[in-house]
# Entry
Amino acid sequence: MAKTNGKKGGAKGQEGYTSRHLQVLKGLEAVRKRPGMYIGSTSARGLHHLVYEVVDNAIDEAMAGYCSDIAVVIHDDDSITVTDDGRGIPVDIHPTEKVPGVEVALTRLHAGGKFDKDSYKVSGGLHGVGVSVVNALSESLDVEVKRDGHVWTQEFSRGLKKSELEKGAKTKETGTRVHFRPDPEIFTELQYQWDTLASRLRELAYLNGGVSITLRDERPEGTENDREERFYFEGGISQYVEYLRGKKNPLHDDVIYLQGDQDGTEIELAMQYTDGYNEDTFTFVNNINTHEGGTHLSGFKAALTRTINGYASRSSTMKKGDPSLSGDDVREGLVAVLSVKVLEPQFEGQTKTKLGNSEVRGIVESLVNDKLGTWLDENPSSARRIIEKAVQAARAREAARKARDLTRKKSALETGILPGKLADCSSRDASLSELYLVEGDSAGGSAKQGRDREYQAILPLKGKILNVERARIDKILSNDEIRAIITAIGAGIGDEFSLDQTRYHKIVIMTDADVDGAHIRTLLLTFFFRQMQELIEAGYVFIAQPPLYRVSRGKKEFYCYTEEERETITKELQGGKGSSAIHVQRYKGLGEMNPDQLWNTTMSPENRTLLQVTIDEATEASLLFERLMGDEVEPRREFIEQNAKFVRNLDI
# Structure
């Protein structure tokens, strides 16, 4: 008997599957069929990505030395216009496609000047799909090109041309204007967010010093409020470091700026040490944020550790017998931006944001070894303060060593040392297991009784955990609640963190719906962001949404998660028949719910609502945590005043 490998059909199945079943998607049909493959999603993230694709073309012109002014406008219908003063998309007839170059760029995938190194030495738009994808996913798109002495215009819709290229008035100017309206048939979200666009445009302006990028919002007041902001930073990434430093105090007055090039690879590094305890290093390749790091980051870290240790030894700053400074030690309090321009970048990782070019590591190492060593020699007082801070970090690291050992998964499994208050699940499949971090013993008790013991683990937390934004590693690891969390998760902490060792693929923060609950949630998020950021990047961290109210009348009961929902349910019950009174119960704490209620509303996969924590802008996230959880009170007050109008469902 022939084996079918468990698949039904056999030979008859092969006969039924012929070439006529192979679907051929022509032109930009593939983009409209599978938009997520090209822009990530059809939600808000993908919507904003359309703008980035068009802006990246203008930035490529700027990197080539032909563009200095870029403008982005959000119109009142949520359409977008991007204008630049570059050379303009070519309008002459393409030799093989037999249509104008602008039509090729807008209707053909993998077509563009980025593949021709005579046109662009380096480019952020590496795949040649940018503006054509925008065209494919737009209800309408019109382009205006100024070049060759005239203004040229052409219109498109959903990837297809609606008109031929028209030659218009004479002009001595050059540049490109692209106006597009995202297709409502594709996108689930159509409203642009000012803060999201401003964050990326600000970043691009810092990375390309001397280029002006203006964002204007023409929508009526009540959406994002009609406003305009210009991003222009002559100092480039040095000013970026000052921005990222926020309110932390610098250990030396001037930002260290190092620049060099080798074999076509250009390196820019700006860095400054602060009195903080966390490291904020951000890396970019051809303006792409490589948040997964790569060879350029590895080269920087290795050279920084070697150079600082070498200077400390030469200058006798360290005492005899002191251990060498580790990478963690020399990067404590560091704010750094590393920007690399690579001719042929090779990206690794699932999100294609990890540089893989092996030669770049050596180039970065060589630059930092040479030029940072010179800077330290020329600035002895600043160098001494940097070394002293690193030595203090090393002493704290040694003091924390024993506490750190207790948190490692290996010890936990071999000796059975798991937190005593952890009610673990029976499943050993991490992909199916969930860990609930629950505020208080009372709520923890209800959660333990109401959970599904097969895959749900409960860890009650007592009080508020330590604010890790203001603490060194030794103090962090001496905190009982934090140590319990680290041990339960089992993946280590900081540079020793290993995502593969995580014991749960859902870590759910479940706190009360009040101010204290919000504070505890923020403290936990600060801890995960600073010490286990890979958990967030992997999509493992969630926030539970317990109900605010229980509304009942007779035998009918409803759970309401918002004030509006409570009002609607109450009105519906008031309009119904019957003489029984309507009862409204406000849940101020999770402990007020019995186990069945907690399960049915907040923990059951069939009924619960979980908010997944993501990082879209790591630089802005870092600044926000520093603003909310740092030593300065004024930034927190300003944040509260600016955002108080958005607060919902908190007993303030």
Remarks:
- The chain has three domains: 29-231, 237-399, 402-546+612-646.
